[in-house]
Amino acid sequence: MKLYQRKFEKISTFSTFTLIPLSGLITDIYIPSFPEMQTVFHTSASGIQLTLSYFLISYGITMFVAGSIVDSYGRYKIVLSALLLFALSNFLIALLPNLLLIYAMRILQGILTAFIVVAKRAFLVDIYTGDKLNSYMGLLSVVWSLGPITAPFLGGYLQSFWGWTSNFYFLGIYALVSLTMEWFFCGEAMHGGRSFSLSAIVQSYRQVLGTGSFSIGLLVLGASYGMVLMFGMTAPFIIEEHFHFSSIVTGYCALVSGLGIFTGGLLAKSLIKKSFLIKLQVGNMASGAIALLMFIVGFFFSNIYLLMSFVFIMHLCSGFIYNIYFTYCLTRFPENAGISSGITSGGSYLITSILSYGMVNLVQVHDQRTLAICYFSMAALTCSLLLILRKARI
Q1: What is the Cα–Cα distance from 24 to 151, expressed in whole angstroms?
Q2: Which domains does the chain have, with CATH numbers?
Q3: Which of 222, 332, 357, 359 is deepest in the core (most CB within 10 A)?
Q4: What residues form the membrane-spanning segments (predicted)?
């Protein structure tokens, strides 16, 4: 097996950080294509939104087991195999357009992406320690937010010039380029891999999930990212059908959304030494107040510029909260880096997919006020979780 070489530290770290945004990239790049896909496949908006939910559910479930597998069998070969299959699945979607096939491939992509992301996060834990590790872990969610920032913006142009299939061709090529970088410059960096033992794995999961602050954190992460995903699922219909703008404008609006997440992540990273719970409470109170104001203003004014001003601030708060708790969860159990990474992302994404899909279909989001109702509901859920955390002092 090819082993990691320290001389390639910089480029292998760069390769890792190009794969960290993969989950955001694959969920957001084709969002501007939702209306066209709805027409092409003669289905409802929820039928197309399911392609996103299926990915998130399979991604979340796989995350729970991916950590134990990469901790037992290593990272390198798993990443190479997953990238190859991921590329092929995207080319299949583009070449054989069938809604049932897309559902199946999106489920497969959720599984593959989970292994890639967990393995690459664990790779950082393998090669870095101390303050440098904490710094990189704090940077993870900031880099991850580049996916939601760039993907819909790029997807809007791809959709406008070449149609919905171009998004999946792009993802396939992206995976092949990443595969090439991994093949030449990365290697297995795990030291002293543990044998696969079901009893030991179950015990590790009990230890991680049995920690109250960690389990509550999964719910907080799911609710905070749920705000972002609700906008992503409904933005094409609000912008292209309610406000009558093009898919390119949808991409620009998603860019604003992503910049909000990115800014919130940077703000959280700059306040890393401040009180953990106070930061979360301030971010949550701000998001609840903005959502309420967004709803009230919607009775009197409604235009795309006002909508996106509120969205930017809401997603800044979401990115702020997400970064704080994400960093905590990833570094809480360094002895079980793969498992804790898998549970953190898997649990939060599973919660996000259920909450976001359920909320947008329950409320029937179509304008600023209905989106504000969804935002406020998520903020209220987060508030109740933080109250439990504060009361239990865990």
Answers
A1: 8
A2: 10-189+200-392 (1.20.1250.20)
A3: 222
A4: 12-31, 51-70, 82-101, 107-124, 136-162, 168-187, 208-239, 245-268, 280-301, 307-325, 337-358, 370-389
Q: Are 325 and 264 in contact (CB under 8 A)?
A: no
Q: Is the pTM of this model over 0.85?
A: no
Cα–Cα distance measured from residue 255 to residue 261, given in angstroms and rounded to the nearest whole number: 10
Please tell me the distance from the alpha carbon of residue 287 to that of residue 310, in angstroms, as a whole number: 10
Angle formed by the axes of helices 165-185 and 9-19, nearest 10°: 160
Which tokens hold the place of 71?
Answer: 């901790």
| Dist. CA 86–CA 33, nearest whole Å | 20
Beta-carbon contacts of 393 under 8 Å, excluding residues fewer than 6 positions away, are: none
Q: What are phi and psi of 64, to 5 degrees?
A: -65, -30
Q: Contact at 8 Å (CB) between 51 and 102?
A: yes
Per-residue pLDDT band for 108 (boundaries 50, 70, 90) equals: very high
- Report the 10 Å Cβ neighbour count for 278: 11
Size of the chain in residues: 394
The radius of gyration computed from the CA coordinates of the chain, to the nearest angstrom, equals 20
